[in-house]
Specification:
heterodimer; A: 217 residues; 3-stranded parallel beta sheet; two-stranded antiparallel sheet; 5 strands; globular; B: 224 residues; alpha/beta; Beta Polymerase, domain 2; 5-stranded mixed beta sheet
């Protein structure tokens, strides 16, 4: 990534003239905004939480190892505690028995926090969708930033999702109406943990997070 | 290894009170199984384990089967005496009519055990036990005191089929959570109605998704 390209990438929502910025960069003067610097710092050190749910976790582990090396993107440190993690990679089948624990872990993470739903099971229930014990996608209870299809997705797909997330973080603003949840004092980062009921989890989805898409047949 | 018939004879000699029945397997593997009455199941299993010739010291698998109430329709030829007018003369004539008679074979739950012998390298010997019905009399003797490996598998059968194993040291649900009321592998299990979003539905799922949609629209109109 060249200097010009880099600064153009960083200056997505700044008001500085891009050409002027590139020109100044060539002269050795670095112009930036707090927002840019803040987002650059955060997107370059997203620490995922260290937990896996099924076979997708094996691909996630492979992604962190030498061949694919997620550390290149600043995400090498998998934290065993939700308090120290920024990113939850839901890698694998979420059973109805596990779903309350996943939501609870998400609640325990400190803001800002992001979720990647990895694989067919985590995004929709996958091959187990019509089973009695598998949740039909973790996005019914917690907000998901990036969905990855695949069974399991290859490490390249996880890296692509990671870069997509980085682009999303880059585009976030600190102020204004469209600022993310964690810059809004009134918004909550807590999501209700579903209770195991007599026949199913109760509630079966969180209406604030999961809006049922309309299927046109 | 002894044949199923020989094992049956050996069981009947050792545990005379037990009722043993051979359930034939018509497939090429011809792995016939032994149906034991639940009351003497434990004694029979103990004999199979301790017998010097069989020595079935390894329990490989425990599973459950749900047999629903079965309605059997038989066609029976019945002769009636009917008064008829034949050639202007009234006479009593015998007439044979085919009638369909229905009778219901009550359903039951079944536990199936597969045994091998590590000592003699033979097996499997397949043991079946049946409960009296599918609702309130669902007890079977636990074989966990004989084979420790039965513990989790019997818990799983209890969890998914609802067979209560008496004598089990720790009979709790294994896969589903405490407080869950249903038995998911029973044939009459009703899944929770969460078919609100099925983008690629077909066949049965499509029918259920449509039923869900209709129900939602129906209730929506009521609210307005």
């Amino acid at each position: 990534m060249g200097v010009g390209e880099g600064s153009a990438d960083l200056g997505l929502n700044s008001n500085i003239d891009q050409n002027l910025k590139i020109e100044m960069g060539k002269q050795g003067i670095f112009v930036t905004t707090i927002e840019e610097l803040y987002n650059w710092g955060r997107r370059s050190s997203v620490w995922p939480m260290q937990f896996g749910l099924a076979c997708c976790a094996i691909e996630m582990i492979a992604t962190t190892m030498a061949r694919y090396d997620l550390a290149r993107f600043g995400a090498e440190v998998f934290r065993p505690s939700p308090r120290q993690a920024d990113l939850m990679i839901v890698s694998g089948t979420v059973t109805k028995k596990m779903a309350p624990q996943v939501v609870r872990l998400y609640n325990q993470m400190a803001e800002p926090k992001y979720v990647i739903a990895m694989g067919a099971c985590a995004i929709s229930g996958g091959p187990f969708k019509q089973g009695y014990n598998v949740l039909k996608g973790i996005d019914r209870y917690i907000p998901v930033d990036v969905h990855i299809p695949g069974c399991p997705p290859r490490p390249e797909a996880l890296m692509e999702a990671f870069m997509t997330l980085q682009k999303k973080i880059d585009g976030q603003s600190l102020t204004g109406e469209d600022r993310p949840r964690y810059h809004d004092a009134e918004a909550t980062g807590e999501f209700p943990v579903p209770e195991p009921g007599e026949h199913d989890l109760e509630p079966s989805s969180n209406p604030l997070v999961w809006i049922t898409p309309v299927v046109i047949r | 290894m002894k044949t199923v018939e020989e094992i049956k004879a050996a069981i009947e000699a050792a545990v005379p009170v037990a009722r043993v029945e051979i359930v034939p397997n018509g497939s090429p593997s011809a792995e016939h199984s032994l149906l034991i009455d639940a009351a003497h199941g434990f004694a029979v299993a103990k004999f199979l384990r301790d017998d010097a010739e069989l020595a079935l010291d390894y329990l490989s698998n425990v599973t459950g089967v749900d047999w629903l109430d079965k309605e059997i329709v038989e066609k029976v030829k019945v002769t009636h005496q009917v008064s008829k007018t034949v050639d202007g003369v009234e006479a009593v004539v015998e007439e044979t009519v085919e009638e369909a008679r229905k009778h219901v074979v009550p359903g039951h739950l079944e536990a199936v055990y597969h045994f091998y012998s590590m000592k003699f390298k033979h097996g499997p010997v397949i043991l079946r036990m049946r409960t009296e019905n599918r609702s309130d009399k669902v007890e079977l003797p636990s074989l966990t005191p004989l084979w420790r490996s039965a513990e989790f598998q019997e818990r799983e059968v209890f969890d998914l089929f609802g067979i209560v194993f008496t004598g089990h040291p720790d009979l709790r649900r294994l896969l589903m959570w405490e407080g869950f009321k249903d038995y998911p592998l029973r044939r009459d299990y009703v899944e929770p109605d969460d078919f609100e979003y099925e983008p690629t539905a077909h066949d049965e799922v499509l029918a259920r998704a449509k039923a869900h949609q209709n129900r939602e629209q129906g209730s929506g109109n009521k609210d307005q």
